[in-house]
Specification:
Its main location: membrane. The chain is mostly beta strands. The chain is built from 5 helices and 42 strands. It has one domain: TonB-dependent receptor, beta-barrel domain (Maltoporin, Chain A). Strand 6 and strand 7 form a beta hairpin. The N terminus is likely disordered.
Length: 718
């Protein structure tokens, strides 16, 4: 099982950001046979987004997309759960659209960063974007320029470096990946395809020390496992004429793996620590995930001034199946076997159209509509000693329609830029369990937003933003079935969840188009505590609940690092304030805490062919819902060498050199008293070879936004 579940789903922080920085070479511009090559800064601050240019970064080589996210300013990783400081869980997009992959956290762990050109962090999205989520993280994949055929090959391998005695492991954990990308454009057609394979061995180790009444339960859980994953993308763009472009794209994901967890539980007297009993739980889980998505797109340009219409249609299927064989073994050797099978197919159909019309030279109007339908089937079968247990088996079917319309107006004059928008969304949802209707919702919501930018000087600009956002419950969060995690812990969903509503404000200053200073204020109501703890006898279970109001303040200060022409980089820090107020279990939870986060990245380039990068972060103790997480940090080192006239590059990375991305903390509230420690294979060494071939000036596939949005984002598979 995942560590998030073994932590009573108390979601400890496993790692927490920093950033990366490197200068990238932008596409060459040819003027009368003279090539002018510019450099992109690692960070670019635009009016509504922060752009992180990772292409060419030594630290990114051989990394996964998930590992790169851990190095973006303000992005937190709380045990497989991404958080943007003050914004909650972000929406993940790929090439301007919410990922077709439903188990997005696992997909990001398996997506190679080699194919990513840059990442956009949009903290206050406007009316054009779906209202769900507090922020948007958009991965822009690499695309090339001009006619011809080109491609790239990528090979990478990594291994962990651990003391087996102190980490309680029994083997080395390694991974290797291979990938290829090919693009061909001729005449009116552009064809592109990519494929990536990853084999990964991994582990999680957790310790929990619980006080329940007058007893103490100490649990250790070691979960080694492996998986093989395949990702692919293929598409064709047809440029019918200067005004019309038609595209079809298919992308998919397939993963299978095995996890072997061993849980040891020792019960003792809570005062004297005298041993009373002990038992073991063995959990062998075979997991299969598949995702196939098809997109059709038509773009029509009415003129050359930007008056255009985009229409998208998406269909995707996602299948998740887990088979867990669980054996509880008492100290006398008696075994109690059980089996848990989860089958979760998801079907999504989304239509979207957007229209953009310039108004004069200084204004622009954007309007659009969207409609999406989701069909979710959740089947849980449970057997005890080979006999079906209907009391623990469930069949939950969920149907949802989200309809939306928006309008946005942008106007610039003198040194000002103004943007305002309004979005309305209708949510229709029903849920049936065992043939009985247990969920029935139908409501409309309005989401205003505005942005004001003022140029204070040639190099300095100021920005004020506001947006209203919503965080709808995930599909499985509303599924009331019970999932057993170990002999003392289980979780279940809540069909009565309401959406979170947030009001988000931000003031920022940018210097030379770089982030410099910002302060944000965020207020949420009906906050969903994803893992609200409950104690029933010796059993602990968690369930999502609308429990609290949440107030967050973030003050950020960033600065460049420049020492001569060969040493560049940046540093930054954030002061973060979190305050939760909730009435739960007959008592009031009212807790607030400040934490300080520092991050840095420095690049040294002694020659054009060599580069060295040093990055890291440190955070003081922080508060996340009921969890108080202790301080932690990480330092990383990377070396990169270009070969063969820069057609190839070799990178060597050392991640988490001090093995300090270990999580520890506590949950203490009413009858719940838990202390925990958790770590996994964060320390590793990676070797990567990337080779490009063909015409590197080929015009690649269009970067376009397709119809699917938050529907896929909200399928949270455990």
């Amino acid at each position: 099982m995942k560590p998030i579940l073994f932590l009573l789903a108390f979601t400890p922080l496993t790692s927490l950001l920093a950033q990366q920085k490197d200068s990238l070479s932008s596409p060459a511009t040819v003027l009368d046979k003279v090539t002018v090559t510019g450099k992109k800064p690692f960070l670019e601050q635009k009016a509504d987004k922060l752009i992180v240019n990772i292409e060419g970064s030594a630290t990114a080589a051989g990394a996964t997309a998930f590992e790169i996210l851990q190095k973006i300013p303000g992005v937190l990783v709380i045990n497989e759960k991404l958080m943007v400081a003050g914004k909650g869980v972000p929406v993940i997009m790929i090439d301007g659209k919410v990922s077709q992959y439903t188990d997005i956290m696992q997909v990001l762990r398996e997506m190679s960063a080699t194919g990513i050109e840059k990442i956009e962090l949009i903290t206050n999205p406007g009316a054009k974007y779906d209202a769900t989520g507090g922020a948007i993280i958009n991965f822009i994949l690499k695309h090339n320029a001009n006619l011809g055929t080109n491609g790239s090959l990528n090979l990478n391998a990594a291994t962990g470096i651990y003391n087996r005695a102190t980490t309680h492991t029994d083997r080395n954990f390694y991974r290797h990946g291979e990938g290829i990308t090919i693009n061909h454009r001729e005449g009116r057609f552009n064809i592109y395809t990519s494929y990536n394979f990853l084999h990964r061995n991994q582990f999680d180790y957790n310790e929990f020390d619980r006080l329940i009444n007058s007893y103490r339960f100490f649990q250790s859980n070691y979960s080694p496992g492996y998986y093989n994953s395949h990702t692919y993308r293929a598409g064709i763009d047809f440029y019918a004429n200067r005004k019309n472009t038609i595209g079809i794209m298919i992308r998919g994901f397939s993963r299978n793996g095995l996890n072997e967890a061993q849980n040891n539980t020792r019960q003792s007297d809570g005062v004297t620590d005298q041993p009373l009993s002990n038992f073991q739980t063995f959990n062998y889980t075979r997991a299969q995930r598949t995702n196939t998505a098809v997109n059709g797109n038509w773009k029509h340009s009415f003129d050359s001034l930007g008056n255009e219409l985009n229409i998208d249609l998406d269909y995707s299927e996602y299948t998740f199946k887990n088979t867990s064989d669980i054996v509880n073994q008492l100290s006398n050797g008696v075994k109690y076997p059980s089996r848990q099978i989860i089958h979760n197919p998801v079907y999504l159909l989304v239509f979207k159209t957007d229209y953009t019309r310039p108004i004069g030279q200084h204004s622009k109007l954007e309007v659009g509509i969207k409609s999406g339908r989701a069909i979710i089937n959740n089947d849980l079968g449970f057997t005890q000693n080979g006999v079906p247990d209907k009391s623990r088996s469930t069949d939950f079917k969920y149907l949802e329609n989200i309809n939306a319309a928006y309008a946005s107006l942008q106007h610039t004059f003198n040194k000002w830029e103004l943007r305002g928008g309004l979005r309305t969304e209708q949510t229709i949802a029903t849920g049936n369990m065992q043939g009985q209707l247990i969920l029935d919702k139908n409501y409309w919501q309005l989401f205003p937003s505005f942005l004001v930018t003022r140029k204070l000087s040639i190099q300095l600009s100021a920005l004020v933003q506001y947006s209203k956002r919503v965080n709808r419950p995930g599909y499985l969060q509303q599924n009331p079935f019970i999932q057993y995690l170990d002999s003392l812990t289980y979780s279940k969903g809540n069909p009565l969840l309401k959406p979170e509503i947030a009001d988000e404000y931000k003031f920022s200053l940018a210097y030379k188009n770089q982030p410099f200073f910002s302060i944000s204020y965020n207020k949420k109501r009906d906050v969903i505590f994803d893992n609200a703890p409950n104690q029933v006898g010796n059993l602990t279970y968690t369930t999502p609940e609308n429990l609290a109001s949440y107030t967050n303040v973030v003050a950020e200060l960033d600065f460049p690092i420049e020492l001569g022409k060969k040493i560049t980089g940046y540093g930054g820090n954030q002061a973060i304030y979190n305050h939760y107020h909730a009435n739960y279990l007959g008592a009031t939870y009212d807790r607030a805490k400040w934490n300080w986060l520092a991050y840095w990245q420095v690049a040294y380039k002694p020659t054009p062919a060599w580069s060295f990068e040093f990055s890291g972060y440190y955070t003081t103790a922080l508060l996340n819902e009921f969890i108080l997480i202790n301080h932690m940090g990480s330092v990383n080192l990377a070396v990169q060498k270009f070969l063969w006239d820069k057609k190839a590059k070799v990178s060597l990375n050392f991640n988490d050199l001090l093995f300090s991305e270990k999580t520890s903390g506590e949950v203490i509230y009413e009858e719940v008293n838990v202390h925990f420690h958790q770590w996994n294979e964060t320390r590793n060494i990676r070797l990567t070879l990337n080779y490009t071939f063909g015409n590197q000036k080929l015009k690649g596939a269009r970067t376009r936004q397709t119809a699917s949005d938050e529907e896929t984002q909200r399928v949270k598979v455990q």
